[in-house]
Design brief:
The chain crosses the membrane at residues 39-57, 69-89, 109-127. This protein has 139 residues and is mostly helical. The chain is globular, with a radius of gyration of 16 Å. It has one domain (3-130). Helix content is 79%, strand content 0%. The protein contains six helices and no strands. The model is unreliable at 133-139 (pLDDT under 50). Helix 1 (3-32) packs antiparallel against helix 2 (34-60), helix 1 crosses helix 3 (65-90) and helix 2 (34-60) runs parallel beside helix 5 (112-128). The relative contact order is 0.15.
């Protein structure tokens, strides 16, 4: 497994996220309001990321669930770094506003996104890997 390739494979997720956010602003915000539009957009992002990860993971060829978990950890780190660095320094969002996206007590579902990009690679690896009886290949 090549971590550089895994990092490059993360980049299309930025494009997916931007397209998903653009669709939210264009089609969901006015009819649903901010909270519901954010929730629906998070669910659509989860689905879109799931399809992308399912398709790209075999090209990255993790040899084990552990290697797939390392891909997920890398993607988690890149996702959080992008969100906070880009969100604050480029988009100009306040730190408090960025952190508010993680408040599930106020109906924010955003924490599911970084969680999903972290767990989807090992989960999908396990779903794709045929059981061979050799636990070392699956961990």
């Amino acid at each position: 497994m090549n971590l550089m390739r895994a990092g490059l494979a993360w980049l299309p997720m930025v494009v997916i996220a931007i397209a998903n956010g653009t669709a939210r602003e264009a089609w969901l915000l006015a009819p649903l309001g901010e909270a519901r539009a954010q929730q629906l957009s998070t669910l659509s992002a989860l689905a879109l990321f799931g399809v992308y990860i399912w398709c790209v993971l075999p090209r990255l060829r993790p040899a084990s669930t552990g290697q797939a978990a390392r891909i997920g950890a890398l993607w988690l780190a890149l996702t959080l770094a992008f969100e906070f660095v880009f969100g604050h320094y480029v988009a100009g969002h306040r730190w408090a506003d960025l952190l508010a996206n993680y408040d599930i007590t106020h109906g924010r579902l955003w924490p599911l996104i970084p969680l999903w990009v972290a767990i989807a690679p090992p989960l999908f690896h396990r779903l794709r890997a045929p059981y061979t009886g050799n636990s070392s290949k699956r961990s």
